[in-house]
Amino acid sequence: MTDTRTTVVVITHNRRPELLRTLDRLAELPERPEVIVTDNASTDGTASAVARHHPRVRLLRPGRNLGAVGRNLAVRHVRTPYVAFCDDDSWWAPGSLAGAADLLDRYPAVGTVTARILVEPDGTEDPIVEELRDSPVPRPDWLPGPALGSFLAAATVLRTDAFRAAGGFHPRLWLGGEEELLAADLAADGWWLTYADHLTIHHHPSTVRDATLRRAHGIRNTLWFTWLRRPAGPALRRTLHLARTVPRDTASLRAFAEATAALPWVLRERRVLPPEVEARLRSLEPAQRDSTARSYTG
């Protein structure tokens, strides 16, 4: 069942055991995809372990931690029409890469396909899956699944050319809700984002993570995206909503401080979305307010 339509891209930083497990699982896939790993300056022997245990994997070593931009670096080397992202603690289920490629082949206006996420070791659905299934974004009749306002990089297959044309992940955002800006720019370019319930990715959350820093970055990046792309009224409403609802702690204070300090850059790069894309984002606002899982638009 070798399938040459999709390349898998993984970024990693100091998670050697998790990455090796992920590469083991990817090597077992019937699609036998090419895999590219960007090692974001790991110091735990990741690069040598990958070279030793997975010599067929293309390993990129930029020499510094690029965050999400490590994916951009990897995509420069992709020669297939589609690129699948996964994190170093997640892996695609057998047949799902081929299934996503089939959808992208069949529906030329679809730019991204996001899969169902099962949390390991128990195999339970991630709470966000319900939100993906019930996405309130208006959809055309032909779209094969729910329309999304954004996507989860660790569970999504994208058109390679669309990713490149949209500019990939913005270097300012690092990691934490970094998908929202790219998703909006893809939609502005005319692409639809969809969810496919019959595709699966497994996620075994790593214990090697700084959840507080990731949350701070997520809040900051949401604020940046909001003022980079949303009209003034919706941007102000979302900013005030975040100010009222985020935890009153140092991480939130740091996020708002960093977002505010970058205001000159934000104003220079501000480009309001087309009305039809803005309408999709407005349809998500009630769901974002009531979300019991992490928001899939930041």
TrEMBL record:
GO terms for molecular function: glycosyltransferase activity. The keyword Transferase applies. InterPro entries: Glyco_trans_2-like, Glycosyltransf_2, Nucleotide-diphossugar_trans. Residues 7-131 form the Glycosyltransferase 2-like domain. Gene3D superfamilies: Spore Coat Polysaccharide Biosynthesis Protein SpsA, Chain A (3.90.550.10). Keywords: Glycosyltransferase, Transferase. It comes from the Bacteria. Its EC number is 2.4.-.-. Belongs to the glycosyltransferase 2 family. This is Glycosyltransferase family 2 protein. It comes from Streptomyces plicatus.
